[in-house]
User: Which sequence fits this backbone?
């Protein structure tokens, strides 16, 4: 990463949509136009206020989930960015509709039981009330003909604990604009189009939108940006623009060395990690970065003036998360063994058909913008120390982190950069 100072504003967004389709339910379409105020079933609802803190157990669960999912993505030769926190929140809503083995598997993967998931979601929303950098929103879109089939308890839990808006919709092609407009609004316009169409059997869509917008506490100086060589994983070299400046914290363990650079709202930071062994594949390093390792790096960070150098970054990813989630242990939800009977309060044919996440990040002198959109289709802290400079001129892992709770909000890797 960098070697000097000046500002960088960071914008991130993460979205997760669960598209719930049922092969055994009516799929007729209504002809109403765009969303009306009367379509918002929770317009006058007061959301639950939670006095309890987001606990260490809950932080650990979220960190474990994010890193395990990242490890199971595969595609080691590609630059990737994942928003584990967005995925966790959306799947948390979906878990409230699950029963039996499907629920047990989701609880295991998410790291908490259903009641704890709901409590953690409520506490997370409450923790964001005294900060401005991170915003999050949830919504549930119900097909008009399906709304009466959905259990009141499912909707109330999602509305209260996840602060989800519940909206009645046509869920036909006319509803695509409504959902994309909602998504764009709650991601600062970074994801203007989440979906292009809605399959005719869609009965419900769950959406989590996450946006981060912060500026560096000590910005990067454009005058210090210069061409440097990045050594790509494939053996080639690229001459690209590097940001140069200073970071606030040094982090290190047996496998990695790196830094954390704070934003003006010091709850948040950008952590970059390099393998200590320059000859070691980044994929091996990623395997060592489980939730406990990341939490320990964040908890044991050392105050230091670290000279840093990192490439300007502009990348996007499209990730299908089905296989990664299955590798984590969530298998039944994707097939005929799925049990989402808590959505309707009775037996149904609902299952998750796809989990798709689209992400984008741009790192420059003036700012950083990042976004993540995930679609789930369901059918039927230490004294200052001396630290060596960190030059990210070879493959590395980076994260947008919540320093107060030791949670990675976004995690990505850079292995190759084009000139």
Assistant:
């Amino acid at each position: 990463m960098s070697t000097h100072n000046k500002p960088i504003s960071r914008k991130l967004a993460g979205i997760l949509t669960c598209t719930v389709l049922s092969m055994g339910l009516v799929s007729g379409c209504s002809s109403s136009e765009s969303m009306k105020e009367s379509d918002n079933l929770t317009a006058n609802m007061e959301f639950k206020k939670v006095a309890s803190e987001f606990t260490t157990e809950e932080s650990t669960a979220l960190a474990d989930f994010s890193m395990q999912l990242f490890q199971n993505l595969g595609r080691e030769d590609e630059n990737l960015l994942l928003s584990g926190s967005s995925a966790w929140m959306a799947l948390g809503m979906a878990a409230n509709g699950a029963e039996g083995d499907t629920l047990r598997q989701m609880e295991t993967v998410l790291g908490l039981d259903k009641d704890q998931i709901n409590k953690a979601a409520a506490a997370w929303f409450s923790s964001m009330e005294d900060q401005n950098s991170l915003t999050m929103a949830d919504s549930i879109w119900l097909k008009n003909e399906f709304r009466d089939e959905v259990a009141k308890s499912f909707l109330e839990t999602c509305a209260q604990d996840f602060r989800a808006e519940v909206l009645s919709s046509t869920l036909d092609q006319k509803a695509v604009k409504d959902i994309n407009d909602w998504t764009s609004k709650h991601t600062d316009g970074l994801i203007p189009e989440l979906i292009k169409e809605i399959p005719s059997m869609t009965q419900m869509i769950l959406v989590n939108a996450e946006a981060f917008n912060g500026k560096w506490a000590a910005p990067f100086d454009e005058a210090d940006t210069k061409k440097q060589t990045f050594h790509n994983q494939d053996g080639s070299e690229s001459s690209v623009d590097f940001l140069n400046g200073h970071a606030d914290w040094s982090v290190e363990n047996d496998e990695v060395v790196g830094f954390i650079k704070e934003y003006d709202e010091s709850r948040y930071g950008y952590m970059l990690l390099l393998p200590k062994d320059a000859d070691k594949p980044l994929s091996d390093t990623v395997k060592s970065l489980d939730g406990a390792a990341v939490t320990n790096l964040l908890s044991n960070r050392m105050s230091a003036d670290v000279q840093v150098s990192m490439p300007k970054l502009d990348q996007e990813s499209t990730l299908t998360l089905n296989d990664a989630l299955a590798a984590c242990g969530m298998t039944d939800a994707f097939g005929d063994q799925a049990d989402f009977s808590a959505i309707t309060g009775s037996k149904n044919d609902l299952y998750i058909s796809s989990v798709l996440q689209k992400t984008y990040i741009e790192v420059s002198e003036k700012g950083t913008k990042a976004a993540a959109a995930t679609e789930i289709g369901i059918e039927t802290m230490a004294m200052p120390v001396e630290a060596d400079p960190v030059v990210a001129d070879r493959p590395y892992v980076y994260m947008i982190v919540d320093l107060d709770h030791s949670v990675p909000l976004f995690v990505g890797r850079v292995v190759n950069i084009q000139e």
In short: The chain has ten helices and 16 strands.
